[in-house]
Specification:
By secondary structure, the protein is mainly alpha-helical. It contains 5 helices and no strands. Helix 1 runs antiparallel to helix 3 and helix 4 runs antiparallel to helix 5. The longest helix is centred in the last third of the chain and has 25 residues.
Length: 121
Amino acid sequence: MAEELKIIQKLDEMMDYADAALDQFPRTKKVSLGAKMQDQMDIMLTSCIRARKGYNTLAALKDFDVAIMVLQIYIRQAFRRGYLSPKKYEVWSSKVVEIGKMLGGWMKSVKPSRPGMGSRP
């Protein structure tokens, strides 16, 4: 339970940082690439809350994982196109990686174990 609350807090912090970074995008890119990035962060938050509430937890976590991967690609594109400074790219990417690591731990804790696939006594 505490891990899920931490990940929501980290998501909130990342979204605050992203909001400030997206404000620096050129106007035309705010409504295209910026909007796509915002959509992925919304999917991440929604999936996290769905998983925490127990609504098809594993499927929600998988949706969360996919949204993280897509967001990472969009962040790289924004950096390559010059919409993000190297510092903003580094900070935002590190926040996403940290959330991804937390998500990986959460996914491992809820994955159903397969018979015969566990560790030996």
